[in-house]
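Re: weekly structure request thread

Next one in the queue (125 aa):
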Amino acid sequence: MILAGCAPNTESRTSAERSLEYANKSVEEAGRAVSAQTREATDTVNRKLDDAKVSAGDAGLTAKVKSILAADPLVHDFSIDVQSNRGIVTLRGEVKSDALRRRILEDAQSVDGVMQVNDQLTVKS
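Done, posted below.
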């Protein structure tokens, strides 16, 4: 903003310059606030996208493990609950023997993407 010729006397010019400084500071502060809010919004969106990717990956991993178990003739008759969370697969259900429990754990561990298997299977007495 150009002040030359706007203020007829020194007092008015000084007041106009102060007003200009105040306006410039206000614009700078508003710019910083907008930048901070934009960074915050961007971070939130990125976190939500990461969560969505993980969730989709978990659903796919669960489906793969369920498919392997369904394809195993020794296992497919048992109701095994499969849940995945960030590569950790949790298996729940009752099986008829410890050998079958080990077989189910091996099947689950064989799936690409499984980092760990949380065994919550129980053997029927």
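The beta strands are 81-85, 88-95, 116-123. The chain has a mean pLDDT of 85.
Next request, please.
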